[in-house]
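A common beginner's mistake is to predict each chain separately and then try to dock the pieces by hand. The better habit, illustrated here, is to supply every component at once so that their relative placement is modeled jointly.
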Amino acid sequence: MEQLYQPEIVERDAQQYWDEHRCFEVTEDTSKEKFYCLSMLPYPSGRLHMGHVRNYTIGDVISRFQRMQGKNVLQPMGWDAFGLPAENAAIKHKVHPAKWTYANIEEMRSQLKRMGYAYDWSREVTTCKPEYYRWEQWLFTRLMRKGLAYRANGIVNWDPVDQTVLANEQVIDGKGWRSGAPIERREMPQWFLKITEYADELLDWLDKLDDWPESVKTMQRNWIGRSEGIDIEFPVAGHDALRVFTTRPDTLFGVTYMAVAPEHPLAAGVARNNPGIAAFIDECRKVQASEAALETLEKKGMPIGVNAQHPLTGEDIPIWVANFVVMSYGTGAVMAVPGHDERDWEFATKYGLPIVQVIEPLDDATVDLSQDAFVAYGRLINSGEYDGMSYEEAFDALAAYFEAQGTGQRRVNYRLRDWLVSRQRFWGCPVPAIYDNDGEPEPVPDDQLPVVLPENVEVTGGASPLIDAPEFQNATDPDTGAPVRRESDTFDTFMESSWYYARYTSPGADAMLDERARYWLPVDQYVGGIEHAILHLIYARFYYKLLRDEGLVDSDEPFIRLLCQGMVIGETYYREDDKGHKTYYNPADVELERDAGGRIVGARLISDGQPVTPGPIEKMSKSKNNGIDPEALLSRYGADTVRLFVVSDVPPDQALEWSEEGVEGMFRFLKRLWRLVRECVERGEPAELDLSALTPQQKALRRTTHKTIAKVTDDITRRYAYNTAIAAVRELLNAVAKFNDDSALGRAVVREALRSSVLMLTPVVPHVCHSLWYALGGDNAVVDESWPVFDADAIESDSVEIVVQVNGKLRSRIQVAADADRDAMEEAALGDENVQRFIEGAAIRKVIVVPGKLVNLVV
RNA sequence: GCGAAAGUGGCGGAAUUGGUAGACGCGCAGGAUUUAGGUUCCUGUGGGGUAAUCCCGUGAGAGUUCGAGUCUCUCCUUUCGCACCA
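With all components supplied together, the output reads:
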């Protein structure tokens, strides 16, 4: 065994062993329980960042731990390779997006390999390869035939100067990122997937995802935004009836005005002959362009001079056009009940519209509608024959009435919209559709798939080059042989990331998935960033149901357990010039000054020794220059130290603060571990572990060993608490370091403690444990070893320390027999010297005894 | 505005079911080793107090309890998500 811990040698050896023995390549083995552990695949942006390292280390710890539990563990990796940054790089460096992407993948794959992650690289997926996306196209053509994929008008960001559609992130302050021209919202034909068809299922299954974070489920519920209500028609003389959606039909008698969105057809119709209304609508449109203004927008409206008729009372109700009504939700028109809706109240108060009470509280509390709207459910009043009804009774009665009249119906409304999947971009999966002469889209037949993205085009940043590529655009009709035009749109990249986890199970299959998918799916553990809580995780769940309904998988949800890891954050340092412009400095180039108590009192740039100002601790980013390159750490400390750091400090779902000293501490720990093992080995071979001959000290160390095994196992399996698991192992090693017993039997107890520690640390720091395990006499490579077995007998003890409280305050700790009963514990407590000082002269009123733990004397 | 999570030493955090507050580590201080720095090792480290298993102490205030960091209520602060949702 080497004298000192040398990570570069240790890590090279371990990785070589894993490669040569193909340790992480798995097949479908029905004799073992399978475990599919998945980390979100990266976008190949160029280099690994600390966020990746944290994500993938957590996944790797779980995978390696499950493997030690005897499971058949699949842990794959791939590349989310389509997307805008590749196009941007292509424009900037005049290289094809494919070339840039593949070069980045090479670089990042080698970085991942240096981290020692236990991936089955034989299943690697690269989403920009035709062999991958052809199956996405294949499924899409099926969805077209089922009517689940359709073409309709959608709103896009249109750059009038570059004559192109922009992605949201290319619109900065309402202007095009390259042209600087104000961006228009333009309606154009787009492709959609009917996710709303699955809205109820997506919502209902959330309740069954017990091992998902509550926060993610809440976000998804809000995003789906299911609400039950009634569509009601209000007749309008000389116009089509005005249809509104309401969740509060019980307040129908309180309607005092109607409000429609500026884009509503009724408003648009009136505006043709009314310049005032037209001007107002125009004003609303301008404001909408700037998203920021929307937040603080004042509620504004104008009466359009047309009345609707109340469907029950026949009264005239004025119709207003109002900026707070949005066209994309419900019907784009609302019935306003200022007495029982906060927003309607605010608007009515501003414009002097009448406010009527039609609901009274169930508890007969007083209601003052001049102060505030009363929004709670209650009992109907001033509502004719419906008076006295509850919310539910009124809902049912009114729904039945309008359904019988044919002027309304119950409806479930969703916030969720159908998924707009087409993009007018080049670097994406081509939408597999062709247009015949009448412009109707048709699916590309199976034998003509994949529709391959051409490589001989130039990406300029203007319109997609697919539009001007005749060899791509010109296709023939499969039935008639007539020339047809090919769709030039590509898919949203969320399409590829919605099913990659399924493709990993069927590498090389000449189908989207094959029977192997049924063995591996669903994913047992998914690990990724919280930023994907809504979009990616809803789309992937939706897509899985599409796969299920196509007969490709036989379960309902793709991810059983979900872990969302927190951000990696770091200190920021800057200097500000006269104009208030801040220049940020990387924390690696800054040195801190402390006072004698260890408090930080200043920070200086190492290069010039001049002070810099500490800013807030923020997510690592280019703009704040507080990112740490994992590569530099890898060469300095090795992969194990970096792996240890990212899981040791905080639980995985919390933000992890970068600290140079923290990394040093991890490196120090590994050096210390190495030394403890070396010293143990140098002391010579131990005796057989004869349990009947142990001294009390030896028993105590064994107890610590097995208590640690129990705790670490529980921390990892149940709590995801790697930080406390590692702390427990450190405590055990501290106990080993203090253990002064060089007898043969003492060495046996130490060796058991060290072997257990090495096994427990293997998932986190697999390289160093590979070496240490052999040093401690391991016959097999530690990667093939099982998790240490907890020995319940070892933790049994003759006596335990209990706590004695007087009036709930800690007064003493005493030793009692482990099996002491209540009376014995009470007696021992009363006999304690220090306890007596506090109960002297007082009467004991009550004694609370928690067996094996504490006695509380109430005086 | 709505929803969710959180607030504990100089710092990151631990305390899992209401039962020993501060595990583990960073930093700092003292000592040993070293020509020196670094490394490594040992000791100490919430505040107060000469000291004691003495007092105080988990954002603020109240409450429940023999006992509250943990439960309840009110308030303050921070972070995240959604945002005119009818």
